[in-house]
Amino acid sequence: MSHTIGKRLRVRTVFISDVHLGFRGCQAQYLLDFLNNVEMDRLVLVGDIVDLWSLKKSLYWPAAHQEVLRTIFRLSKTGTEVVYVPGNHDEAAREFCGMAFGDIAIHRQLVHETADGKRLLVMHGDEFDGAVEFSGWLKHFGSFMYDRMVDIARVVHFLRRRFGRPYWSLASWIKHAVPNAMTYILAFEKAAAQQAAQRGYDGVVCGHIHRPELRTVDGILYCNDGDWVEHCTALVEDRNGRLAILRWAEHAVLDAAPAMRPGIVLDPAA
User: Fold this and answer.
1) Grouped pLDDT means (10 residues each) for the chain, 270 residues
2) What is the pLDDT of residue 184?
3) Is the domain covering 9-268 a CATH 3.20.20.140 domain?
4) Are 153 and 171 spatial neighbours (Cβ–Cβ below 8 Å)?
5) What is the DSSP letter of 264?
6) Rounded CA gap, 36 and 32, in Å?
7) 118 by DSSP, 3-state: which?
């Protein structure tokens, strides 16, 4: 799958999750740039779109966050099918599963069939936490440290942009460097793949752990669309059913004319 410089990217399906609107670490400007430059038939929101947990702690809702919601609603009214699968940070919306909010259908989980006939189970991913549970104190410590890490990453990202350096994810580097983090990630991926296999699907699409990935796990296609806090990634499907991870922050040029936008590099499915 490839994209030509200066042209809008046209795909069949886009999966995004873990946007965390209302959280200070949300990269809303990158997501707006993405939504305004990618045409899609179907947009699947795989949970944690609005971070109700963060909003309960402190009210943070800048204009860019509101504009993301406006853009999603605009897409739903102008020909893009929008499906919402709530996550744990926006779990209040799970009470409305089976209903529609305007033109947006809400489902607890979804079965997506690709253009080439693969059936993919779509879930946010917190459903798999029980299979890889850590102790309570470690979870709370990890949550605290994650918030601090995001604060540091915002400063690092600002400085790198100031000096013309490419986007770099501090959180991703730490996850690869810490053995316990990788143990958790691998166990999560295996649990997700097992769930899809037990239910007779070809693959699984999820988010939750903020780690974009596209690989085969025990014969099952494991797809994690990543997030819009650390990585600014989406899972996209082209007209032929091929899947890829699109890493937007590495290629988007904010506040630039479309003709100046670099070519988009996709990580294809293995």
Assistant:
1) 59 98 94 96 98 94 98 97 97 96 96 98 92 49 53 60 63 56 86 97 96 96 96 96 92 47 48
2) 82
3) no
4) yes
5) P
6) 6
7) coil
What stretches of the chain adopt beta strand conformation (E)? 9-16, 38-45, 81-84, 100-101, 104-106, 110-113, 119-122, 203-206, 213-217, 220-224, 233-237, 243-247, 266-268
Partnered with residue 215 across adjacent β-strands are: 222
- If one counts every other C-beta atom within 10 angstroms of the C-beta of residue 122, the result is 25
Residue 50 DSSP one-character state: B
Strand intervals (E) in 109-206: 110-113, 119-122, 203-206
Pick from 7, 73, 79: which is nearest to 38 by CA?
7
Q: Report which DSSP code applies to 5.
A: T
Which pairs with CB-CB distance under 8 Å and at least 24 residues apart come from 93-101? none
- CA-CA-CA-CA torsion sign (158, 248, 193, 82): positive
Structure tokens of 126?
């917190």
How far apart CA 247 and CA 3 sit, in angstroms, is 13
Q: What is the pLDDT of residue 169?
A: 59
Contacts for 124 with CB less than 8 Å, ≥ 6 apart: 17, 46, 47, 48, 85, 86, 87, 88, 206, 207, 208
Domain residue extents for the chain: 9-268
Residue whose pair of structure tokens reads 């999820």 in the numeric block: 206
DSSP state of 259: G
Q: Which of 107, 31, 27, 129 is nearest to 72 (CA)?
A: 31
Provide the residue count of the chain: 270
Residue 108 has what DSSP assignment? S
- Residues sharing a CB contact under 8 Å with residue 269, sequence separation 6 or more, in sequence order: 214, 221, 242, 243, 244
